[in-house]
Structure formats: C-alpha cells, structure tokens
Write a structure and sequence with these properties.
single chain, 139 residues, mainly alpha, 2 strands, 53% helix
Length: 139
C-alpha cells in the first residue's frame, strides 16, 4: 500500500514535467503541402485582388510576405493571424471565408514565406492555432 501511494505521489510530481510541451512555431512544419495548395486557390480567388498574386500588397494594402510582414507577426500566434483574417477579410465581405479556408490561406501564406511544410494540416480551431507561435527567424 505504501509503495502504491509513493508511486502515485511520484507520478503527480512528474506529470507536469511529462505533459509540458515546448511551444510549437512556424518552423515546426505545422501545415502540409496539400493544405497550402488549397489555400493558394482560395487566396487567388478571394485575396489577390487587394494583396496581389505574389502577396506583395499595393497602395494601402499591406504585403503578406517579406521582412515587414514577418516582423509584424513575430511572437504572435497563428490564432492571432487567423482571427485577423476571419474578422476583417475579405475587405468587401469580412467573415466570408470558412474556418477551414482561413486555415488553408494561413498555410499558403506560411509556405509562400518559406516556412517548412510538415505532414499534418494546420488546425482550423482558434485555441489550437493559439498554441503555435509565429516566429520570423529560424531558431
């Protein structure tokens, strides 16, 4: 009985250490190529009129590529980026894109900015996206 209690207490003490995960970032392959391709199609149909086919932006529309873009989002989360898209884009019809389309567009933006693809899709739910940091510089 004492041995079982001791084992239980050890597990309680170790559980936070075992369950703690290092935060994921944009450098951890958080999207896959198929998702980025879907995102490219959505981007070209819904976003390129303002942000340009090469994500370069124009006039008052900010670019979605380059050092300015990545430094603006550095240390924020992909949940922040996804929510910005969801509540304010497309400009003429905010909220038009589904959560899946938002995630796909974010995957395309990441791929365009040369973040590595992985094997899993970027999640579409905001709590999961808030667990992924946007890191401009490779660690």
């Amino acid at each position: 009985m004492k041995k079982a209690i001791l084992c239980f207490l050890c597990l309680l003490w170790l559980f936070p250490l075992l369950s703690a995960q290092a935060p994921r970032s944009t450098w951890d392959g958080v999207f896959n190529e198929e998702q980025a391709k879907r995102g490219q199609a959505v981007f070209l149909a819904e976003c390129s009129n303002c942000h340009g086919r090469d994500l370069e932006g124009a006039d008052m529309t900010p670019p979605l590529t380059g050092a300015g873009f990545t430094s603006n989002w550095d240390s924020l989360t992909l949940g922040d980026l996804s929510e910005r898209i969801r509540i304010s884009m497309p400009l003429n019809s905010p909220g038009k894109l589904s959560r899946q389309e938002n995630a796909d567009v974010v995957a395309y933006i990441l791929r365009f900015n040369q973040f590595p693809a992985g094997k899993d899709e970027l999640p579409r739910d905001v709590p999961a996206l808030r667990q992924i940091l946007f890191k401009a510089a490779k660690p």
